[in-house]
Amino acid sequence: MKYAPIAISPEQAQFLETRKFQINEIARIFRVPPHMVGDLEKSSFSNIEQQSLEFVKYTLDPWVSRIEQSMVRSLLTKEEKQEYFIKFNVDGLLRGDYQSRMTGYATGRQNGWMSANDIRELENLDRILESEGGDLYLINGNMLPLKDAGAFANKKNDEVEDSNGENENRNGRAKVRKVDSS
């Protein structure tokens, strides 16, 4: 038998470390996160999404803005510039994970600043007909239409029942006692 070492020599190990460093340097020069060039050594499931959002925000956005401005300057006449603009839509790249989006949509829907059709447009789904309530803005509290929120509280003699079965007008003066007729 002859002994054959399994480990690599120090020179080969140093060469491999240099190659790893080169990958990170190239990614750094082009402002690309290492995971986008295949270096997953320092990446995890929890930070990949954030790194991708930072890539769009800090690397793509400046270039996209320059290209938009150049296209407007080169392609549109002075009159067209008053009416049209050029804008790249990078919203798809900025979208979070499914659970975060749905939580955000639910918050917007329940607080009355998003309709079902607003949400469906963001998810590239077909609109719900207006007659079926697709454009209703609702608020939590049995999901009332926004225009009906507080309608019952605005009645002049709106009565509030206390725990003893007594009703009291909002002004606190007249009290009515419920009597069981059975």
From TrEMBL:
<dbReference type="Pfam" id="PF04860">
    <property type="entry name" value="Phage_portal"/>
</dbReference>
<protein>
    <recommendedName>
        <fullName>Phage portal protein</fullName>
    </recommendedName>
</protein>
<feature type="compositionally biased region" description="Basic and acidic residues">
    <location>
        <begin position="167"/>
        <end position="182"/>
    </location>
</feature>
<feature type="region of interest" description="Disordered">
    <location>
        <begin position="155"/>
        <end position="182"/>
    </location>
</feature>
<dbReference type="InterPro" id="IPR006427">
    <property type="entry name" value="Portal_HK97"/>
</dbReference>
<dbReference type="InterPro" id="IPR006944">
    <property type="entry name" value="Phage/GTA_portal"/>
</dbReference>
